[in-house]
Amino acid sequence: MKNDKTQTFNLKQEREKEVRAILVDVYEALKEKGYNPINQIVEYILSEDPTYITNYNNARSLICRLDRYELMNLILSSYLDV
Predict the structure, then answer these.
(1) Terminal CA-to-CA distance of the chain, rounded, Å?
(2) Spatial distance between the Cα atoms of 33 and 38, rounded to a whole number of angstroms
(3) Measured distance CA(82)–CA(47) in Å, rounded
(4) What distance in Å separates the CA atoms of residue 55 and residue 82, rounded to the nearest whole number?
(5) For 55-78, what is each residue's pLDDT tens digit?
(6) Which end of the chain is more exposed for a tag (fewer CB within 10 A), N or C?
(7) Phi/psi of residue 48, each to 5°?
(8) Confidence (pTM)
(9) Distance CA 28, CA 72 (A)
């Protein structure tokens, strides 16, 4: 089967998916360890102190791969639906 249509690739959408996947994994790890995930993630974003995030399931190293500015930008954009 011949596909002669041009495929497009949106880097912004792919990055947003990656960030979302990381946040979900971190959220689940915090929840499984008995923490309040929202509070812990907010404290991490505000302080940039990785000790707010558990090492369980590699959550700390995952969230450290995200830029806090980018993370806040995506969260706010998503919240405002813009």
Answers:
(1) 38
(2) 13
(3) 26
(4) 33
(5) 999 999 999 999 999 899 989 988
(6) N
(7) 60, 25
(8) 0.83
(9) 19
Helix 11-32 to helix 68-80 angle (10° resolution) is 100
Work out the number of other CB atoms within 10 angstroms of the CB of residue 37.
Answer: 20
Which residue segment(s) compose the domain that 39 sits in?
Answer: 11-80
CA of 8: how far to CAs of 4, 5, 17, 18, in Å? Answer: 12, 9, 16, 18
Helices (H), 2-67: 11-32, 37-47, 59-63
Positions in the chain whose pLDDT score sits under 70: 1-3, 7-9
Structural domains in the chain (count): 1
